[in-house]
Structure prediction request, 210 residues.
Amino acid sequence: MVEIIPSILVKTKEEFLNKILAVENISERVHLDIADGIFVPNMTISGFEEVESIETNLKIDVHLMVSKPENHIIRWLETPVDSITFHIEATQKAQEIIEKAKEADRRVGIALNPETPISALATFIDQIDFVHFMTVEPGFYGGQFVESVLDKMSDFFYFYPDKPISVDGGVNPETAPKLIQAGANMLVAGSYIWNSGNITEAIEKIRNDI
Ligand code: DX5
Ligand code: ZN
Prediction:
């Protein structure tokens, strides 16, 4: 069963609360984007306090678009997030991050930017719970879908058919079937659902087309 996960990329706590409220009864989980203005040219809420201060049944997957995620991981592991995704391009300490997340009993995924080859995952594949393929340049809602990632995902799926794949960027009813065809299990959707005017229908529309 493919999961469609709304993404939350916000600059204020108020926007965060509004988006949580908007999907609380629609989705089981949300994808929380954290951007530091260094790894990507955009800055969001820092996230820790916002996540700690809300009461919600939503599971939260945090996507760290930050430089040196090893400096943030301990603080995130104090929060109730369900999973942590970090970028392989942002760190030399992937092993350490994975071990910390696993010790804290969290799911952990590695994100790959559109141009980053699968080989960057090297020895980590067996240690992570999922791979997170970026299909846009990271940092913003509404980026340009990078079609060539479909081939990269298909290659990965061929070699690692059992490793869950999540996809992030430009998910809509047109791209979703291609992403599923290439092996994706989780589709993270931002601007398509937030701009739709009706989030339930937008998610259904993606689902109906896959
Ligand atoms: C992009 C973020 C995504 C973003 C997706 O850098 O990591 O999670 O919210 O937004 P759309 O679906 O608009 O590409
Ligand atoms: Zn994201």
Notes: Residues 13-23 form the longest helix (11 residues). The mean pLDDT is 97. Residues 7, 9, 31, 33, 63, 136, 138-143, 168-171, 188-192 surround D-xylitol-5-phosphate (ligand 1) (CB under 6 Å).
